[in-house]
């Protein structure tokens, strides 16, 4: 845990002479420098506002060894290790060592660490038996979760593992098609991030036994997430005897022709260790990251995994299916909702957790069948946001998706040139023109956003620039913010310092495009709109706005001007910024947070720039600016679903 740094010399085991020699040669370990490295890491951890990490000396030394004593690599690994607690809980937290189901799954024998060799210094060996669990009831993520916690004990107790690393033996006996294709690219990437990138151990080799027919396609998928060194160390064996060329016989269990004891005995040894480390594991539940307090780019992007190799996954599933002449089902995963939000989602937007997977798959199938949308390859989480915004009506969802990607193509002023590092985007971001607040009224409440129209100079920027940035932030909330996608948003529009030069940019044509985006494309549920500090000339702009709104949205707009007390009745002071009479973060703190957040999505925005409709390939009549928005200045009212 974070605490005042111990002024005493760090306490960790001294290596044996043989291991010390290897550590110096291979890991750059300098015993005289190690205490100082540990101290520097502790100080660094304390300064990370988003990070709550373990600071035991032996633990930090293990991570130093896993990174060959590069302090910058250690910081990155520590950050990733604890970030995955928050961003990949389906892998790192799906089983808790303090609960009975952890020991029950451990005793299935899906994952154990084999005994240390008595014949010399060798990497420790991890045995994974894929076919030992029922994929209808459990997941490969459970196996990784077992490994995640066993490794903690291993590096705390065994210097051999932290210096020499590990080898993995994967036995596919009993493995079925359901085992092979249950994990989608997002889950595979998270598993790889946990095992390859975050654990404080060096992988010295992976060995695969009893490999079923068709597995080479799955290996191809997994290898896309592996580094080159790991790819080179992957070996497939025809018999257990071939293992003896790479692993000492006294380590290998009796069931595999070795002398290392039975698998059952090894399982019980580790079950005892989990019980012995109960207080350690209880502490583990308190560690992780608060991503809302992070400054800068996230250590792990949940989104990337969903975008990578989706086509390859389907190909792999179909290929294995054709070999074995059975049908397979590709499993989807999305971020689980909290209990309170799940109840609200069920009640208000018809969300049924058992149907989400099939609905997402139905949308992906539909997208592949639409010739004008072939460039579109959305993630599961993105599609779930659209489903929630459509109250899980598949037809309404398809309409919104079609319109959204169409608008990306024909409204470039909103959806093109969205590099967060461009001077124009940076300028708007740093003004804090659109700021979602980081605290909600309650755990299941809507997200509150402040739109500050008067902060930009109309001679330097256009109103469409502000709208573009607001939409960029909205899309990030669609990916990250469950309160936003389930409960909707409440918007405070602050018109302080808005002059005629700004109001004159609010033309009927611009208003129509904005309202079309909100009503017909973006999966946004606007719950209320509070307009503050209205300027002279506001009524004319308001009239233009109302001309395109349906009755439902008109009723949700409240013009408060300077009646802040009326605002406080709807939105409590404890969540509002101090500039609005509240007790929450101030505007500059919110601005800094959203600048860093949008910058962290740079790769995503650049990649998304090509994902739009190709109207030349639309089966029906192509949609154009004229067909959607008519003659400029038209006041034809848009409908609200």
From TrEMBL:
Annotated SUPFAM superfamilies: CRAL/TRIO domain (SSF52087), CRAL/TRIO N-terminal domain (SSF46938)
Location of the CRAL-TRIO domain: 125-264, 422-588
Source organism of the structure: Iphiclides podalirius
Taxonomy, superkingdom: Eukaryota
CDD domains membership: SEC14
Protein name as annotated: CRAL-TRIO domain-containing protein
Chain intervals for the UniProt region annotation (Disordered): 610-641
Compositional bias annotation for Basic and acidic residues: 610-623
Pfam families: CRAL_TRIO
InterPro entries, per database record: CRAL-TRIO_dom, CRAL-TRIO_dom_sf, CRAL/TRIO_N_dom, CRAL/TRIO_N_dom_sf
